[in-house]
């Protein structure tokens, strides 16, 4: 009779050995051979009349191995289903001597696997944790700046001959070069429009009086600062924090110069900004805009609090892992095999993701958080309405339900929506447990906190 023996071989790492007697696999092997003899189509023999010895010689070795492995797998998963050890992933086969399988001398067979076990852990108490709710107070200055931005965006561009104002827009050709202004073969060449005030103070002074066709060489890091440098790096195709790219030099040629004439503050402008709200005065516009900005910064404040909760749960939850097993699983258990070096390099980030998965699964299970089909449909409907609403959905929305029906049949779409919604529910629950201290910060301070912690 088949047995499974379990023994510990390391931290949270056990070995399972499936022991088979020949009676466990031999009957099924012989049965399979008989089935082959009935269906084998071999020249010189009528179907079903092929001698058993010939069938065994031709197909026996493969059938024997298949039946032994099938029996081993059956016994292994019967054991796991009965004992229910809390394991990671799937068992990994240990080195086993398959060459010793001999259909002519069936005997006792041992086949070993290793399993990685999840450790017990306790979550930190969110209610007693020292958390801070950073809040941004929306000022009249912030509202005014946003109105100016909208006026410029909707304004009219007027061309001019020379740069004489920080509000001027220069359309320029960036050509990558060396510090001696020699163009680099295969380097970046790209046109872009830049507000003069986006350059640093030194470069702004150099730009004054420049005309169409003028050229000059500059280095990104010494010409742009802070978020403007990040913006330019991204515009040129680099990551916003690419320090090496920030040291690159470019030849800049002015193609056109313009100044934006701000849009007039009137009902036509108000209706374009907030269609359907019938805003008629600047005061009404400022009220609506302030409410919108407050909602935005409230959501950003909530996100920053969620980030603190994430770190609290991840950093303050003590948890052990069967690292050797998980590293071997990374090598062999994924969709694409990795080298030992690749698995070891990937392991730290993999363990962090695994730890968060265990934490979040525990919170979801213990607090019975769930996303229903109705929740999924409602979220998808809101997303589609928001998307098409920007282009004007019109009054007839009868097509919307059938469109959502098709989205619900897309497994990737459903999975992505579920993951987003269950994560939102998890952090909403966690935030409801927290008792943070409130602190007023500037919008710049809050943005800096978020840039330092992106997950």
Could you explain the architecture of this structure?
The protein contains 14 helices and eleven strands. 15% of the residues are buried. The chain has helices at residues 22-39, 52-83, 140-153, 201-207, 226-235, 243-246, 267-273, 282-316, 323-332, 340-366, 373-389, 400-408, 411-433, 443-452; strands spanning 3-10, 13-20, 87-93, 109-117, 132-136, 156-159, 168-177, 189-195, 215-219, 249-261, 437-441. The model has no long low-confidence stretch (mean pLDDT 91). The chain is α+β, with helices and mostly antiparallel strands. Helices cover 49% and strands 18% of the residues. It has three domains: 3-117, 2-Layer Sandwich (Alpha-Beta Plaits), CATH 3.30.70; 156-261, Chitinase A, domain 3 (Roll); 282-452, Trigger factor, domain 2, CATH 1.10.3120. Strands 6, 7, 8, 9 and 10 form a five-stranded antiparallel β-sheet that branches. A four-stranded antiparallel β-sheet has the order 1-2-4-3, with helices on both faces. The protein has a two-stranded parallel ribbon with strand order 5-11.
**Rg (CA only):** 34 Å
Report the mean per-residue pLDDT as an integer: 91
Look up the CATH topology of the largest domain.
Trigger factor, domain 2
Write the element-wise H/E pattern from the N-terminal end onward.
EEHHEEEHEEEHEHHEHHHHHHHEH
Strand tally is: 11
**Low-pLDDT residue spans:** none
By secondary-structure content and strand pairing, the structural class works out as alpha+beta
* Principal-axis shape: elongated
Distance between the termini: 52 Å
| The top level CATH class name of the largest domain | Mainly Alpha
Q: Strand fraction band?
A: 15-25%
Largest sheet: number of strands, sense, barrel closure: 5 strands, antiparallel
State the CATH architecture of the largest domain.
Orthogonal Bundle
Instruction: List the total number of helices.
Output: 14
Please, how many domains? 3
